[in-house]
Automatic annotation (TrEMBL):
Gene Ontology molecular function, alphabetical: homocitrate synthase activity
Family matches, as InterPro entries: AIPM/Hcit_synth_CS, Aldolase_TIM, LeuA/HCS_post-cat, NifV/FrbC, PYR_CT
Role played: This protein is a Fe-Mo-cofactor biosynthetic component.
Organism lineage: Bacteria, Pseudomonadati, Campylobacterota, Epsilonproteobacteria, Campylobacterales
Family annotation (PROSITE patterns): AIPM_HOMOCIT_SYNTH_1, AIPM_HOMOCIT_SYNTH_2, PYR_CT
Enzyme Commission number, as recorded: 2.3.3.14
Protein name (record): Homocitrate synthase
Broadest EC class assigned to this enzyme: transferase
Keywords, comma-separated and alphabetical: Acyltransferase, Nitrogen fixation, Transferase
Family as reported in the entry's similarity comment: Belongs to the alpha-IPM synthase/homocitrate synthase family.
Reaction(s) this enzyme catalyzes, per UniProt: acetyl-CoA + 2-oxoglutarate + H2O = (2R)-homocitrate + CoA + H(+)
Example of a GO biological process term: carboxylic acid metabolic process
Secretion signal, residue range per the UniProt entry: none
A matching Pfam family: HMGL-like
Length: 372
């Protein structure tokens, strides 16, 4: 499967996000190191500055396909060609709503434009993906027509876009299974997160036959964002069993870069990268983890550049307290631990704060006289 990351295009379309040249270069390089297979890096039609940034990214000479996003118009394609790009996405609206808004409902004109631009793109030897904007609200018969036209003109890929994020995984599966059964063009997933299903829908599309998937780091993007790079990457490696080498440091680095450059802070429970996802508080879980380090984790913290912790909290059991007390050099009696637990619960509930690894020591020191 191909991860085509669009952090530098759809990611940057998130409200209030604007990357400068240095940030774009750093993010592109970091995405390569973290395991992206292709990058969509911007929109040349935006003008000279965007084009200059794209040229700088191309000058990095990263060994992966670099694409731009374009309306399927000659002027957008020319702007891309002037950057020296050799791969483009040519986007057309495919739902009745958007065809009405952008082409006055004229499907014939829309397809004629696509045909003209695609013809030039292919005669220039450009890898060309047709972007089906709003595919999920489109008529499947019309998508077939677009794909037939694309295939007849040598297009390389069709991007199925759930532009407003309204699909469910099962529906996506049915759409993509049908479109791939046509054997016209390979399919790329582009899914939005309006109902929190972007990654699930992207994965469902891959299971149904799509070959490629658009992602963005930390799911950045229009409105609620896109399928997240780190979630898709880890899913391909761990759930699909793809032989991908996950570079934990590179993954962590790209997430930090994008967080900072986009001025977003991710939630502590964000899959793959949230700071609390390897903090086990529940007593039964800590007890299990001490006995077997896979007991309550789907993948190791080291695999994503993180560390595990056993915070002392309201849900701690005796194993957690013992773990920390032993690390401090104590070997308390069971009855002491059992006496401490209700006090710890009381204390944590009052403070509304668990004690993280470092704070565990000071939290337990208040019971020092009981232990000695
Ligand atoms: C679903 C998506 O994410 S699509 C990508 C959206 N991304 C962006 O819009 C970010 C970058 N955009 C921009 O910088 C600007 O909008 C530009 C440079 C592309 C265009 O700017 P402007 O020429 O000033 O046009 P403006 O943004 O007001 O309107 C867009 C125009 O493109 C047309 N358009 C939109 N999509 C397409 C398409 N796929 N094919 C042809 N025309 C299209 C619209 O109908 C509208 O045309 P109109 O002016 O005749 O009504
Ligand atoms: O048309 C495309 O290639 C992608 C458009 C897009 O970003 C979307 O539909 O959300």
């Amino acid at each position: 499967m191909i991860i085509n990351d669009t952090t530098l295009r759809d990611g940057e379309q998130a409200p209030y996000v604007a990357f400068n040249t240095e940030e774009k270069i750093a993010i592109a390089s970091a995405l390569y190191l973290a395991g992206a297979d292709e990058l969509e890096v911007g929109i040349p039609a935006m003008g000279a500055k965007e084009q200059a940034d794209i040229k700088e990214i191309l000058a990095l000479d990263l060994p992966l396909r670099i694409m731009s996003w374009n309306r399927a118009t000659m002027c957008d394609l020319e702007a891309s060609l002037s950057c020296g790009l050799t791969a483009v996405d040519l986007s057309i609206p495919v739902s009745d709503i958007l065809i009405e808004a952008k082409f006055g409902g004229d499907k014939t004109r829309l397809l004629k434009n696509l045909e003209e631009v695609l013809h030039v793109s292919k005669s220039e030897g450009i890898f060309t993906c047709i972007g089906g904007e709003d595919s999920s609200r489109a008529d499947l018969g019309f998508l077939k027509e677009v794909m037939e036209l694309g295939a007849s003109l040598g297009a390389n890929r069709f991007r199925y876009c759930d532009t407003v994020g309204i699909m469910r995984p099962h529906q996506i599966y049915e759409h993509i299974a049908y479109l791939s059964s046509l054997n016209l063009l390979e399919i790329e997933m582009h899914t939005h997160n309006d109902f929190g299903m972007a990654t699930a829908n992207a994965i469902s599309g891959l299971e149904a036959g799509a070959m490629s998937v658009n992602t963005t780091v930390i799911g950045l993007g229009e409105r609620a964002g896109n399928a997240s790079f780190e979630q898709v990457l880890m899913s391909l490696a761990h759930l699909f069993g793809e032989k991908r080498i996950i570079n934990a440091d590179a993954l962590k680095h790209v997430v930090q870069l994008v967080e900072k450059a986009s001025n977003q802070s991710i939630s502590a429970t964000m899959p793959i990268v949230g700071k609390n996802i390897f903090s086990h508080e529940s007593g039964i879980h800590v007890n299990g983890m001490i006995k077997h380090d896979k007991a309550y984790e789907a993948f190791s913290p080291q695999s994503v550049g993180m560390t595990r912790s056993y915070p002392i909290g309201k849900h701690s059991g005796s194993s957690t307290l013992l773990f920390h007390l032993r690390a401090m050099g104590y070997e308390p009696e069971n009855e002491v631990i059992n006496k401490m637990l209700p006090q710890v619960r009381e204390m944590v509930t009052k403070r509304k704060k668990s004690s993280q690894q470092k704070g565990a020591k000071s939290a337990l020191y208040r019971f020092k006289s009981w232990i000695n």
